[in-house]
Amino acid sequence: MAETVLSIEHVGVQFGGLHAISDMNFQVGQGEIVSLIGPNGAGKTTAFNVVTGFLKPSKGAVRYCGKDLQGLRPHEIADLGLIRTFQRTSVFPNDTVFDNVLIGLHRQGKLGLIEAILRLPRARASERRLRECAAELVRLVGLEARAQDLAGSLSYGEQRLVGVAIALAAQPKMLLMDEPVSGMNASETHTFVQLIRKIRDSGVTILLVEHDMPMVMSVSDRIVVLNYGRIIAEGPPDAIRANPAVIEAYLGQSARDAANKVASHA
Amino acid sequence: MRRIVPLLCFAAFASVPLWLQDPYLLNALITTGIFIIGAMSMNLLLGFTGQLSLGHIAFFGIGAYVSALTSLGFDAEIFGGYRLVHAPYPPVAGFALAVVIAGLCGYLVGRLSFRVRGAYFVIVTISFAEVVRLIALNWVELTQGPLALTNIPSITIGLPGLGYLTLKTKLQNCYLVLTIAGIAYLLIYGLVHSHYGRAMRALMENETLAVSVGIDVTRALTLTAVISAAIAGAAGSLYAHYIRIIDPEVFAFISTVTMVIMVVSGGKGSLAGPVVGGVIFGLLPVFLRPIMAPEAQWIAYGLVLVAILFVLPRGIVPSLAPKLAFAFRLAKPKPVIASERTAEERP
Predict the structure, then answer these.
(1) What total of structural domains would you count in chain B?
(2) Which of A199, B54, B150, B301 has the fewest Cβ atoms within 10 Å of its own Cβ atom?
(3) Where in the sequence is the domain holding A202, given as residue range(s)?
(4) Parts of chain A with a pLDDT under 50
(5) Which ipTM score applies to this complex?
(6) Overall domain count for chain A
(7) Is B212 close to A86, i.e. CB distance below 8 A?
């Protein structure tokens, strides 16, 4: 594995008596596309919330590029280049798509208050640069035709693309995507997979949570399977596909028997 | 176009004192102008970050008292027998101090309440205003309490070597208020159109997402509160040096309500909103006075507000602006995007 970017070390999360995550331990290496899968309620989104500082883990540590994220607030974690997208509510609905991306560029536009208000030359130059940048990102996700429409008026699939553009605008070194293709049809998903590859090829490490199995299998370098807050399997797509524990988690014990039967017949 | 409309409005306001000679009307115009500055500062918080400051008059009153005390001088015991003696400074220094100290108070209130926000912010601001009012009422040695601070000097402007001018007449004060209002408008315009303004809008629309792209909520809100409070303080200072007598009544809750009415009826979140709402509700009593008894005036006041919000629920400017194409850009300017689009559409 290449240099480790994100390392989740024996993380546990407890909500009252419920162990949302009991003991999670895995690494993501530089330039990898890793998927986190598991049945509903397995703790995937909770894991995302822990990594991005929206939730404090009850135990364990999250390290990003060797730095312990303990106690950092979400915007500080974002400042480190660890950016996420959300399962739902992924846009600023009352702004245009273009402005959505412009807001995402916040980290790059930091200026003194005085020069920003008085629009001194440096502020104007920075603003122009941000606008060029935003236009480029809108093009990258393929929404240039909708750039001037309110983000809230877009279809669900298009809103996900806006969410990705906003996340990319924050210049991630690592991108966490929470169910990015839910609500997309097959052709949209196909385009999206190419987009994810393009993002990875530009040097961004990617951690995905997704339910769409064909998509996960085709895009991932490695898959981590969660069930009841525990990691039950980890490995490349082919190994996961054949893993009996995974089949059981998704389809139940009898399905595993059935799968074995099919396998023995074959 | 976007620049022309506010400029025309400004010119229209500037021309009023030239043809309006009636001192009573001029007086109403000046106090209305001062309250419009207060309303603009409130709109910055309420309209652009969604935080309702129901004690906004506290910053106004603090500005008034700081400015008055700086220019009058005082001799008061701070604590433990230590006395603070202050010789009178020129009113301009009072104005500057009023802005700074009101801004500091905005910082304190913001720091205290923005970790929790929403209803908590409303409560903290109300309490803050009440505490400040009680201090002004009871620290008689410093503020004269209910006896009021009197003989506050008028503002004097000028530069060493060029001569000085004391703004005593209504005409001069009218232009002073207009100038400060113009500066406040430009300041707020610059702020909400910078990336700070974008961060504010983002927080109001979708806070979780805003935080995830690295926007610091507490910092953005506190910054807004500081600027808003400082502008309110400036308005308070103008008030003190124009009326030339202030008592703890400047902290009256009804004044905050008046500002909220100006902002909400004019349209929160639009730059022109508080100006439009302020002109209507600031001058309404003046026009109602000859035709109605004072009690009936308040009823009419309420009816006008209900009527406006019934017909134009989002406020006058945001509701009417889309119908007037030019005014739309005034209300919610999205300048460069328009050019962006034409650039993209060009083959």
Answers:
(1) 1
(2) B150
(3) 4-235
(4) none
(5) 0.83
(6) 2
(7) yes
